[in-house]
Amino acid sequence: MPTASPTSCPSHSNLTDPISGSAASVPTSQRTGKLRNIGAGRSKVSLVIDDLVSMEPFIARALRVYGQAEPPAQRVGMVGPGLYSRITPTVSWSWNLAGEPVGERWYGATRTVHNP
Fold first, then answer.
1. Kind and range of the H or E run holding 35
2. Is pTM, for the whole model, over 0.85?
3. Which of 42, 83, 85, 91 is deepest in the core (most CB within 10 A)?
């Protein structure tokens, strides 16, 4: 999950907790730039979730999310206890969530605006 640094450069981390409802929880550490950025009020984040279902036939799917991060809170997640930041999406793009093989044309993107 990239966050905006003071120079607006993203800082990346992997998502390890499932998306529940309209938000995702992302683990963080007290030593990361991500926590410092969110704590400094730079709560805009981006998140990419993708997987390669098959090489033959080629099947890929992806989801890109822009959203707002809440300050990290202590909780127990899939990777154990720690600090997790809840991400609420504002806009997202998805590709081939149905998991269909690629055809003559590459997968088209679907843009969704999320209202709070």
1. helix 33-39
2. no
3. 85
